Amino acid sequence: MQDFSSSFALAFALIGGLDADLLEIIGLSLRVSLIAVIIAAIIGFPLGASIAVIRFPGRQAVDILLNALMGLPPVVVGLLVYMMISRAGPLGWLNILYSPTAMIIAQVILIVPIVAALTRQTIEDLHREYDEQFRSFCLPMNRVIPILIWDARYSLLTVVLAGFGRAIAEVGAVIIVGGNINHLTRMMTTSIALETSKGNLALALALGLVLMLLSLTINALVYALRASAKHLAYA
Amino acid sequence: MPCVLVPNTWLMPEMKKITQLPLKVSDLCFSVHKKQLLGDFNLHLDSQGVTAVMGPNGAGKSLLIRLLHGLLEPDSGIVEWNGKSLELAVRQAQAMVFQKPVLLRRSVAANIDFVLDNCVIKGNKSCRDILQEAGLYERRMQPARLLSGGEQQRLALARALATSPQILFLDEPTASIDPSATRQIEHWLAQVSDNGVKLILVTHDIGQARRLASDVIFMHRGRLSEHTPAKQFFEEPRSREAQAYLRGELVI
Predict the structure, then answer these.
(1) Per DSSP, what are the bridge partners of residue B168?
(2) What is the CATH architecture assignment of A2-8+21-234?
(3) Contact status, residue B106 vs residue A151, Cβ threshold 8 Å
(4) Which of A42, A60, B19, B242 has the most CB atoms within 10 Å of its CB?
(5) pLDDT, tens digit (0-9, with 9 covering 90-100), for B199-208
(6) 8 Å CB contact of A132 and B102
(7) Distance (Å, rounded) from C-alpha B30 to C-alpha A132?
(8) CA B19, B21, B22, B25 torsion: positive or negative?
(9) What are the CA-CA distances from residue B207 to residues B204, B213, B242 (Å)?
(10) Percent of residues, chain A, with pLDDT higher than 90
(11) What are the residue boundaries of the structural domains of chain A, listed by start?
């Protein structure tokens, strides 16, 4: 059993020495979560904006559902995706269980509701401001939505970062569908879980520190973006 | 962008014909939550120039121009522009400038390009011409929402004019800007009117109405009190509400 301070020393040594395993794990984590958040934005922006702008029957129900889905338990998402893509599942033929693709799918399902719900809020506020002017311009609805998304770009970037923060820090879903296989599907969070249970606190701690640093960086980015957008009166 | 000397002729486009007049409004009613805000409103408008819409707060002035422009649906009654209802083609030949300018979160030039790209009807002026006319060409790269209040309203007006409207509605366009900026805008509006655009201007400013209006619609509590030529309105208004309003009494 390593003691507390030696774990820290080892962790810093791993980070400082750019340990190959460490870098591989960080790289995979970033890749999976970045791809997931891009896909989630492609789905979530138009979805959230449509709910904000278009009046249709059942809109409120969709809204409630979306907000409820924001709190989806990751392990449940993991389980459902697992059942879909395991050999016996309806998508078993895709053969993607225990692959980064599976992890991306799970993360997309987790963060689409977040991106869509936050987008809806942002776009709704902007739409309220622009609505009369746009109707005066006789803009058709199919043009209004992309225009609103573009004009909300700074706020939506912070939405994306919020989604990324959730994806990169999530463990329950990716460990079920990814399987935490060394050199293949081992992410920061899954490694922390594994290494901690193995008693290898140094690696776990090193990964934990990197994860915290990332989360700090993301928050700093959000803050800086907001500040610069406000400065330009674009927020 | 290459520097080209722009001939002065674009400053004076030929007088356009207003094909949307006369405006005929019959028995227009509008209510919110069963509270009638506009009732039994009848109007026949065939004058060129500037029509001022005046009246105390809550008289329904902004409501009226929104109904005329088709931004609101009336409960009952008819709005007809030269015999046509508020169909898309009619509305596309109209524009509105709001009290608080609604500017896109983009640069000054991008706000003009926006209507040039998105609106069906537009004049033949380039973005550069339009901004020079508005006196905003030097500021074209700036974020639009960082302009001063007066500049923002000039941009909103320039943008509305870029759609080459026959009818331009203005909802208290100078209510929140200072006197010198107001003067610039009034001067410009007079030119726009001279160029053959019909202006329908909601204003609280009696002086502004005197300076610009050719006729005045006076409203009180959602009803038309009178519609008279400006000269007559300011010298001897017919309705008691208008008389009181012009004397500076508090008309409620």
Answers:
(1) B95, B199
(2) Orthogonal Bundle (1.10)
(3) yes
(4) B242
(5) 999 999 999 9
(6) yes
(7) 18
(8) positive
(9) 9, 10, 15
(10) 67
(11) 2-8+21-234
> Which residues of chain B are modeled with pLDDT < 70?
1-17, 252
Query: ipTM value of the model?
Result: 0.86
**CB within 8 Å: B95 and A133:** no
Write down the pTM of the prediction. 0.86
Task: Convert the pLDDT of each residue in A74-94 to its tens digit.
Answer: 999 999 999 999 999 999 999
| DSSP designation for A170 | -
The pair of three-digit structure tokens given for residue B100, joined into one six-digit string: 């608080």
Reported for B172-176, long-range contacts at CB under 8 A and 24+ positions apart, including other chains, are: B172/B62, B172/B99, B172/B202, B172/B203, B172/B204, B173/B97, B173/B98, B173/B99, B173/B201, B174/B203, B174/B205, B174/B208, B175/B99, B175/B203, B175/B204, B175/B205, B176/B99, B176/B100, B176/B149
Sheet containing B223-229: which strands, arranged edge to edge? B94-97, B167-171, B198-202, B50-54, B215-220, B223-229
**How does A65-103 read in b/e, with b if 16+ C-beta sit within 10 Å?**
ebeebbebebeebbbbbbebbeeeeeeeeeebbbbbbbb
* Strand arrangement of the beta sheet that strand B23-32 belongs to: B35-45, B23-32, B76-81
Q: Please state, in angstroms and rounded to a whole number, the distance separating the CA atoms of residues A107 and A164.
A: 9
- Of A130, A136, A151, Cβ closest to residue B71: A136
Q: Is A230 on the interface with B (CB under 8 A)?
A: no
3-state secondary structure of A45: helix
